[in-house]
Structures are given as C-alpha cells and as structure tokens.
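Sample A.
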Amino acid sequence: MDETFFTRIPKLTDAELLDYVQNCSKYKTEAIEIAVRELRERGHTLTGDQLRAIQKNNRPHNAGKNSGGFLPEESFNRLARRLRFAAVMILIVGLGSSIIIYLNAEPTSLHPLGYDPLTTKKYLREMELYGGKINVLATRAREWFEGLWQGTSLACTVAVLSVSLALLLWFLSTGRQTCTGNHPKKRP
C-alpha cells in the first residue's frame, strides 16, 4: 500500500522534518507544507526568513506545477486582484447608475383603460376559466417581472444586481484561500 504525505510525514522525527524544510528544493510543495505544519504542531517555530527561504527555494522545483489548486500561486494572486478590482468597479458603477436612474425616474403611467383589469373579479374569473389558475399566476408573475424594469423599481433592480454580482466576484477572488488546506490539520 502506497503511503501518502499525510500518513508518512507525521511519523518522521524532528530532524527528518527539519531536513524537509532546509532542503526544500528536493521535495514537493505538498510535502514541505505538511512538514512545516507538523513542526508547528510539535512546538517548533519557523521564522519569517525561513518561510521566505522555503518559498524561494521551492519555487523553481514547482515551476509550472499547481500547488494544491488549478492555478499556480502567482497566477491565482493576479486573477484574484483582477476579480476584486472588477467587483469594486461593478459596485461603484452599478450603485451610481441606480442612483441616477432613481433620480430621473418618471412615475409609472396609469392604465389606458383607467383601471387595472387584473384587480377585477370578473376579469380574473374569465382568465381562470380559459387557462386555469396557472394562467392567473403566470400573468401576475409576468406583470411583476415587467414592473422590475420600469421607474424606481428599475433603480432597485440595478442596485440589487450590481451588489449581488460584486459579492459573487469578491467571493470567487477569496475562495481558493479557504479551500487549499491552509487551515490547521485536525487530529482525532
């Protein structure tokens, strides 16, 4: 049976773990990360200089390889910065547009008949006879959806859509950090 890093490295001595850290160009990134985590759990502290040296010495060994994700770390950081910038710009432009739309919105026009047919019992009954309850529900849903794109409702719709899209992009830009295993290992 082939042992994995997760099962083999915790069994090593402190000296062997320090060898992983000091000669990091020989080992894979995943093995070094597990060794560093194991050293920390055993009470050893690594200085910032040691961690930077590990990162610097291990970079050529893993050039072009993925270290625990779909993109190399530098590409992901660049992509994350772009996504966060896009999220901020969408938020600024979207909220600014919604304010302009709200200030320039005209009141909704009255119905040409002078009343809304959907509010009369007779009209609703005839709609239900011809198409069933689903016809009434579909008509109300269509009118509600059309109402989102007119007047002050349009301003609210643009604001909600821009905030939602900005939050989605922001979440995508920070999501990999929580999914790559950078959190401490739990032991039973």
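Sample B.
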Amino acid sequence: MTNAPDEPKPAAGTPTGPVLFYTETLLEHFRNPRNVGELAEADTDGFGLVGDPSCGDQMKLWIAVRDGRIAKIAFQSFGCPGAIATSSMLTELAEGKPIEEARRITDDDVIEALGGIPENKKHCSLLGVQALQVALGDWEGRQAAKAARS
C-alpha cells in the first residue's frame, strides 16, 4: 500500500494493517505490569470485579479517589498476556486523571497506547475498561451512601 503524495504517512513503527503480533510496548507491560496488587481496604474508594474465571480471564481493580482524581489504582488480572498488558496500561492511563476524564477512557485508547493488539485478543482489552467503570460506579455508590448518612 502506498500513500498518495498529499496523504500523511504513518509514524515509524505504526502498524498500517491488522496487528498480528504482540508489540514491544504490550510485551513490556506484560513482563513488567504497573500497579499490580491491591489497595488496602482503608484506602479503597471503589472496587471492580469483571470477567469469567471459567474461561480464564478475570480482573479485579481498586481505586482511591482524592480531590476528584484517581490518586491510586491497583489491579490483579488473571488471563493471557493481552489481558495483563491491557490492564496494566489502563491503570497508567487512569492514574491521576479526574474522575470524568477517567470515565471516558475507552478500549481503543488502551489499544492505541499499546501500539495495537492482535485482533483475536481484543476482547482482553475490555477487562480493564469494564473493571474501571465498575469501580467508578462503586465509588459513586459509596459517595451517595456517605451523603445519605450526613
């Protein structure tokens, strides 16, 4: 495939077709995942659990919210390299973000940040974003419960 003279050329290293392999960025997040573990109960403002342990992919995600931002985030992911790497990248994308900005993180954002992911592994990228949405919903529920007690 060639580009017309007036079309922008893809950045060096940017896949121009379907990604059929794990990128170096994805492999780095698999080998050295960020924010692995769990937050102490006292630090946890929201928790999400998604996936299906019967098929092997499951993710737990904890968030601590301070001043309307995700101050701390941690995860445990059980699954393939794609699930672990996308979970790791999701935590990097969300940490430090205001709640409303974190809520807008998409699967495509995670995949793009990793430089792509094989088509047959795209379902793995859903875990992190889904777990974040569940944790944010849990945080909102906890906030509502606190307000009701006040």
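B remarks: The CA atoms of residues 35 and 74 lie 5 Å apart. Strands lie at 46-52, 57-66, 69-78.
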